[in-house]
Amino acid sequence: MFLRFRRLRRCQCVQLMTTCLVLSVVMVCWEQLDNHVVSHVKSYSYRYLVNGFSYINKSFTIPREQARSFSNFRYLLDHPDKCANKDVLLLLFVKTSPGNTERRKAIRSTWGNETYIQNTLGVTVRVVFALGSPRTKTDEPSWRTRSRLGPQEQLIREDRLHGDLIQQDFLDSFHNLTLKLILQFHWMHSRCAHARFLMTADDDIFVHMPNLVSYLQDMSRRGVTNFWIGRVHRGAPPIRRKDSKYYVPYEMYPWLSYPDYTAGAGYVVSSDAADKIYQATLTLNASLYIDDVFMGICANAVGVSPQEHVYFSGEGTAPYHMCIYDQMMTSHGHVENIYDLWKAATRPQVKRWSSGVVGRLYCTAVKMALLCKPYYVNTYPCKAAFL
């Protein structure tokens, strides 16, 4: 009897200690659990059960005179004839900052080289860079810090050489990215409306231009409409942590979920969808500074829905392998290695090695190993291995 009592007390003690340990872990991690799990549960519930996005559209609608304040900036640098008398397959806007001279140089030398695209791929793609006005000397390119020219004068000199900077007179900053988004759609509407597609991309992205051109040519032959493709975020909740770069206060956006949108690192819309987005910007409040979310609000207001393409990487960096290059569209997070990646991804051997029954089986196995991870990797999803 005494032994049983001792065993019972020992068992209860172990249970008590285990319970205390679990509660301690929960208390320590509760804030993270609330941010990363509870907010997503609430967001998905709102999206699929309540779905009050019509109220969001109404609340963001403002008079045209007021909406004009988000687009009525004078051009500091412009090229209104950039698309004139050309059958433009794609107008590609690269979002850049005044000081990112080396990034623009790398893009012009690799995937954004218009001469290469015209001569090798046989289509016209116009690549331009969207930017605002420099803030201070911190926006000067690092390799020109000793120049007597100010940041704006250096941009003028760069533009005289390349003729591809589109700049408006608003402060170039993270919180003005939505103004940069509006700039792109307004510029296309007034200066390049005949382009069949519009792409917006960050300046640290890699675009596999041969794959993208081939894909868009196929979409053009099919006559796609309301086309918007990229890495889709569905049921994403606003971030309420004040220490986050993407913090959005309740006063700015009080709802639990954003409308569906594509990652701002890189996405493509058809010309008819671009015109609808342009029309939406004429009546919507653009004070929300998360530009890809604002794009989702505009698209939702005019009935355009994003479509997922597994080889648009969103914010992720794609694995380096020829089996990935065979179908790659975009990969994010490339600066110093963009030259090497361009050379490796566009080699003729890539298509040869990945073609045929043996090549396809080999690449499927490789992509399964690279993409089908037991943990979340923000790049191509596992299903991309089987396409």
From TrEMBL:
Does this entry carry the keyword DNA-binding? no
Q: Which EC number(s) does the record attach to this protein?
A: 2.4.1.-
Enzyme kind, highest EC tier: transferase
Q: In which pathway does it act?
A: Protein modification; protein glycosylation
- Compartment(s) of residence: Golgi apparatus membrane
The topology of this chain with respect to the membrane is: Single-pass type II membrane protein
According to its UniProt entry, the protein's GO biological process terms are: protein O-linked glycosylation; sphingolipid biosynthetic process
Record keywords, A-Z: Glycoprotein, Glycosyltransferase, Golgi apparatus, Membrane, Signal, Signal-anchor, Transferase, Transmembrane, Transmembrane helix
**GO CC annotations, alphabetized:** Golgi membrane
Extract the signal peptide range.
1-24
Q: Name one GO molecular function term.
A: lactosylceramide 1,3-N-acetyl-beta-D-glucosaminyltransferase activity
Q: Which reaction does it catalyse?
A: a neolactoside nLc4Cer(d18:1(4E)) + UDP-N-acetyl-alpha-D-glucosamine = a neolactoside IV(3)-beta-GlcNAc-nLc4Cer(d18:1(4E)) + UDP + H(+); a beta-D-Gal-(1->4)-beta-D-Glc-(1<->1)-Cer(d18:1(4E)) + UDP-N-acetyl-alpha-D-glucosamine = a beta-D-GlcNAc-(1->3)-beta-D-Gal-(1->4)-beta-D-Glc-(1<->1)-Cer(d18:1(4E)) + UDP + H(+)
InterPro entries linked to this entry: Glyco_trans_31
tRNA-binding as a keyword of this entry, yes or no, is no
Similarity comment text for this entry: Belongs to the glycosyltransferase 31 family.
PANTHER family in UniProt = BETA-1,3-N-ACETYLGLUCOSAMINYLTRANSFERASE (PTHR11214), LACTOSYLCERAMIDE 1,3-N-ACETYL-BETA-D-GLUCOSAMINYLTRANSFERASE (PTHR11214:SF21)
The protein's name: Hexosyltransferase
